[in-house]
Amino acid sequence: MMIQKLQPITEVSGQLGLSPQDIIQYGPYKAKIPLDVIYQRQRRAKLVLMTSINPTPAGEGKTTMSVGLSQALTKIGVKAVAVLREPSMGPTFGMKGGATGGGASRVEPSTEINLHFTGDFHAITAAHNLLAAIIDNELFHGSRLQINPKHVLWKRVLDVNDRALRHVVIGLGGASQGVTRETGFDITAASEVMAVLTLAHDLPDLKRRLGRMVVAARGNEMVSVSDIGAQEVLTAILNEAMLPNLVQTKEHTPVIMHGGPFANIAHGCNSIVATEAGLRMSDVVITEAGFGADLGAEKFLDIKAPEARLTPDLAVVVVTLRALRYHGGQSLKDISQPDLNALRAGMSNLNKHLDNLKRFGLPVVVAINKFPTDTKEETDWLLREMARQGIGAAPADVFAQGGQGGEMLGHLVMQELRDGKSQYTPLYHALEPLEEKIDKIATQIYGADGVDYAPAALKTLRRLHKWGEDNLQVCIAKTQYSLSDNPKLLGRPEGFRLTIRDIDIARGAGYIVPLAGDMIRMPGLPKEPTSFRVRVDDEGNIFGIE
After folding, report:
1. Strands 24-25 and 364-369, bridge-based pairing
2. CB-hemisphere CA count at 13 Å for 450?
3. What is the predicted pLDDT for the residue at 490?
4. Where are the beta strands (DSSP E) in 377-445?
5. Residue 394 and residue 410: Cα distance in Å, rounded?
6. Which residues participate in the annotated binding site for ATP?
7. 285 lies in which domain range?
8. Which residues on adjacent β-strands are paired with residue 504?
9. Family per UniProt (predicted)?
10. Are 270 and 311 in a shared domain?
């Protein structure tokens, strides 16, 4: 694997005030940060949330912009760190490719990170599937907890896109093979174990949350991991995975990467402990929440921030001219072609996201992620439009130029951090009924006229009410391509209702997952997956993972 021009991780850690003895090295360029090293410091940094409008299928470059902004701030003398999620091998070998940024604003060693990294995803997969095996073993030997096989809620997971595993039958081949029942697989990024790990404050909290996870329903009661007695062994598997990872950008600025829940089917944020590390070891933290502000940012502001007692200081909304044209009616094959009319029409999507972030009380800056096909006329029009609305905006070419290409954005961000004042308030209160929370997200954030529930979803809501779980937060699984639950409704849709077809329970994470529209938790591969681009030479150097 070719590694060039990277600093030893001991030098990178020094930028965060960490000595070589403070970190656990995973080779020369990767390390983990122990929790006691994190918590012996005090929070001091400003917190910047990176989000975007609803993306095109290729994405709009939030990770690249997060990395580029951290490099830009470093260039202008600010002690900054990017705190990001780890990549999943599902999209890495599927449609989107890797998730370490791109061009001159990439996290390194990118190929290792996009593959196995420090093994966190493997640990989460193993812990999740061990629990599934324990449950099926309980059924095979005659359930002491009187679990009905038809009422088991716990599936298995795998860190690949594999549509054939969405619905499966296990235990075939006779009584010696186990209890025959229907189940399925989710992708590891959607595992509740992933969510628990990213929302836990420390190891005791991780163990407590693992014990709270619901694995089956038994009449009007729930069966939890602590009822089965598996929380200790799951914690043992996750012991090292609980520690956040330290790596570097192409310009050697530190990056803390940890956890990788998707934002369309999970809560889309890196771990609380990684964010704590950034807040205690730098002056400005740039953290990215997945997909558009209707998904990752909403979940950051309604789930992660209240849980971690965070007060974000600023939101940066990434926008590309091609995405605005796409939301304005331009076809995917033509979105690189200038079209000022489509650009104007697509502003409705950007404006809705800006309105939503203001609803949370956050100051907002717009980052225009520059592409070679952008025209000066369209860029100038967008800058004038943002100025007319009183919103700071700056173009940034961090893909081609790295930190230097983001210096204008960096100065704008620092000005807003000095002059702006966050009045952050979550959208809903934890004690509101679940239906009210869902309705607020649907109507106020997505712009829906209301919510319709399928029978399966209503059944789960009734079960949650009986269990006294109204205090759970809400993490809606929804398409990333539209504000609605229909990926074809672009721009700022109106006159639609959100359909909730089912609800998953993630009690250990502290939320429920209403499944909106056709959203599924195990993606499939496209006709020509990116896995076909991967090559390995005779020396073991890997190419094509980007």
Report:
1. unpaired
2. 2
3. 96
4. 392-396
5. 9
6. 56-63
7. 9-118+241-419
8. 513
9. Belongs to the formate--tetrahydrofolate ligase family.
10. yes
One domain for residues 57 and 126: no
Other residues' Cβ atoms within 10 Å of the Cβ of residue 39: 14
Amino acid (1-letter code) at residue 371: F
Contacts of 299 (CB under 8 A, 6+ apart): 263, 267, 268, 269, 289, 475
- Binding residue numbers: 56-63
- The CATH number of whichever domain residue 222 belongs to comes to 3.30.1510.10
Measured CA to CA in angstroms, residue 73 lies from 69, 105, 253, 275, 414 at distances of 6, 13, 10, 18, 8
Q: Which residues pair with 451 in a beta bridge?
A: 498
Report the number of distinct structural domains present in the chain.
Answer: 3
DSSP at 382:
H
Structural element, H or E, at residue 249: strand 245-249
User: Does residue 358 share a domain with residue 287?
Assistant: yes
- The Cα–Cα gap between 201 and 271 comes to 9
Say how far apart CA 100 and CA 103 lie, in whole Å: 10
The vertex-428 CA angle with 427 and 432, nearest 5°, equals 170
CA distance 248 to 246: 7
| Residue 510, domain member (yes or no) | yes
Which amino acid is located at 404 in the chain? Q
CA distances from 422 to 63, 310, 362, 411 (A): 23, 12, 5, 18
Largest CA distance in the chain: 71
Phi-psi region of 180 (alpha: psi -120 to 50; beta: other; left: phi over 0): beta
The residues near 200 (Cβ < 8 Å, ≥ 6 apart) are 206, 209, 242, 271, 272, 273
% helix, strand, coil for the chain, step of 5: 40, 20, 40
**Interatomic CA distance for residues 415 and 483, integer angstroms:** 31
pLDDT digits 0-9 by tens, 377-427: 999 999 999 999 999 999 999 999 999 999 999 999 999 999 989 999 999
Nearest CA to 264 out of 359, 190, 167, 323 is that of 190
Structure tokens at 30: 């990767």
Cα 117 off chain centre by: 17
The residues, ordered by sequence, that sit 6+ positions from 29 with a Cβ below 8 Å of its Cβ are: 3, 6, 8, 9, 108, 109, 112, 247, 248
Which strand (E) or helix (H) includes residue 48? strand 46-52
pLDDT, residue 324, reads 96
Tally the C-alpha atoms within 13 A of residue 476's C-alpha that lie toward its C-beta: 31
Looking at this protein, which amino acid is placed at residue 484? S
Element (H, E) at 10: helix 9-14
Residues paired with 217 in a beta bridge: 222
Residue ending a domain, choose from 351, 386, 419: 419
Could you tell me if 322 and 368 lie in one domain?
yes
Reported as a single tens digit per residue, the pLDDT across 377-390 is: 999 999 999 999 99
* Whether 169 and 269 share a structural domain: no
CATH code where residue 452 lies:
3.10.410.10
Quick one: 254 and 321 in the same domain? yes
Q: Each residue of 455-493: pLDDT tens digit?
A: 999 999 999 999 999 999 999 999 999 999 999 999 999
- 2 within a domain of the structure (yes/no): no
Q: Is 332 exposed, middle or buried (0-12, 13-18, 19+ CB in 10 A)?
A: exposed
pTM, full prediction: 0.94
